[in-house]
Specification:
Largest sheet: 7 strands, parallel
Helix content: 25-40%
Strand content: 15-25%
Radius of gyration: 24 Å
Low-confidence stretches: 1-30
Mean pLDDT: 90
Number of helices: 11
Strand order of the largest sheet: 8-15-16-17-18-19-20
Shape: globular
Length: about 425
């Protein structure tokens, strides 16, 4: 797939499902002359119909699948303006849906961050070398973000993250933030100073600030604090280019045509919508606002997607994202037992049970689907209990994000099934 322009997005979503019977099926969406806009021939077309799982040809028009069948059966839909693709025996799959993503975070990172992922970095020294190179390009006082990889401490030769002292050695004139994931951060002391995080700074609910036991001063290791840092956003032009690059190179090129986006910043959402309208980005978005970063619960549950007007099938408000705990990579996911590699903590809950029940009920009254972030076993049980105790069964099936990652058991699976919960 190559990046470029294409016809303006159609008003309805493309469906990869096949016809109700093995023969060709025709629906509305053909051209005025009764012809398809596109026909794919000589392919192994996966129809998703168990009665006729594969077909040879596929016809599309008006943003929908018009028919699947043999090449001969679809010949009648071919006109003088129909574009024809010869699949030459290749398999043609339905577009993939990313059920839980942070497209905006990826685009923002790629717009301005130093790529310190593994690969290409295989040792802490590799990360520090890249940081020094970037420091030489930035004016004093400019923030620097080093984007690593989740659980990178298990991937690097030293089997640890860079330390605040090592980031200090890179530069004391630049605030530097190393981020292995959305949950885990390492800051140099200039970044702590510029963010005004010191011995007197209270730790926000659900976050963690590692402190010196003697002085109470922060060491530079933080969790669940990235969106509280005063890092300037990428410029509009930088982020617009990154949105297109991220969509084409990392999503569309791998067959992902629709995303369920956990959003917290209006800028990427606005730029995605602009690219969609310009006919430059065939990526469909269903948006879950991260409360409170995306707005109040009432704002998000009421259908607000930053300052972007919703657009049917392309930019739709899906629901609210509520955090029950943090992440395992930062030891903030809430478990019943202490972490083996951090026995001083069992993680942290973001809400009390009663508070969570109230938030679920308020979101449901406004017609929003509820997505609960719960990584640890304690948090997963709290999420299920809150859904159980909600005044009414949610009208839209609730989701537990990361529910099946580490804490899923037959008991929790049965509990979730009874409540109609979707583990995502």
């Amino acid at each position: 797939m190559s990046e470029g322009r294409f016809p303006a997005p159609p008003p309805a979503p493309v469906s990869a499902a096949g016809p109700a019977s093995p023969g060709p099926a025709s629906v509305s969406g053909v051209s005025p002359g009764g012809h398809a806009e596109l026909i794919v021939r000589r392919g192994q077309i996966l129809t998703m119909d168990p009665r006729a799982p594969f077909a040879e040809a596929l016809a599309l028009g008006g943003g929908r699948v018009l028919a699947v069948g043999s090449e001969a059966e679809l010949e009648g839909l071919r006109g003088t303006t129909t574009r024809v693709i010869d699949a030459a025996g290749a398999t043609v799959l339905p577009g993939l849906i990313d059920a839980h993503g942070h497209f905006g975070h990826v685009a923002r990172s790629m717009a301005a961050a130093v790529d310190c992922r593994t690969p290409p970095c295989h040792a802490v020294a590799d990360i520090l070398a890249r940081a020094r190179a970037r420091a030489g390009e930035l004016p004093a006082g400019a923030w620097m973000l080093l984007q690593g990889t989740t659980f990178q401490d298990e991937l690097l030769a030293e089997r640890r993250f860079p330390t605040p002292a090592e980031l200090d050695e890179v530069s004391r004139e630049h605030p530097i933030v190393y981020r292995s994931s959305l949950h885990h951060l390492v800051l140099n002391h200039r970044a702590l100073r510029d963010a005004r995080i010191d011995a007197h700074t209270p730790t926000p609910p659900g976050a963690h600030v590692e402190r010196d036991p003697g002085t109470g001063e922060p060491t530079g290791v933080l969790a669940e604090m990235f969106d509280r840092l005063p890092m300037p956003p990428a410029s509009e032009s930088q982020l617009a280019a990154s949105v297109r690059h991220t969509a084409w190179r990392h999503y569309l090129a791998n067959g992902v045509t629709s995303i369920q986006e956990i959003w917290d910043s209006p800028q990427p959402m606005r730029l995605i919508a602009q690219a969609q309208l310009a006919g430059e980005l065939p990526l469909r978005v269903r948006a879950y606002g991260w409360v409170p970063l995306a707005g109040s619960l009432e704002q998000v549950a009421g259908g607000r997607i930053a300052d972007v007007p919703p657009r049917e099938h392309w930019m739709e408000a899906a629901g609210v994202k509520l955090f029950v705990d943090g992440g395992t990579s930062s030891h903030t996911a809430a478990f019943y037992e202490p972490y083996l590699d951090a026995p001083h903590t069992r993680g942290a809950l973001s809400h009390e049970l009663g508070e969570l029940v109230d938030m679920i009920a308020r979101a449901d009254r406004l017609g929003a689907q509820v997505a609960l972030h719960a990584c640890g076993d304690l948090a997963t049980d709290l999420a299920l209990a809150a859904l159980e105790l909600a005044p009414a069964r949610p009208r839209l099936r609730p989701r537990i994000e990361h529910g099946a990652n580490t804490a899923w058991t037959p008991r929790r699976a049965a509990w979730a099934r009874r409540l109609g919960v979707l583990p995502v």
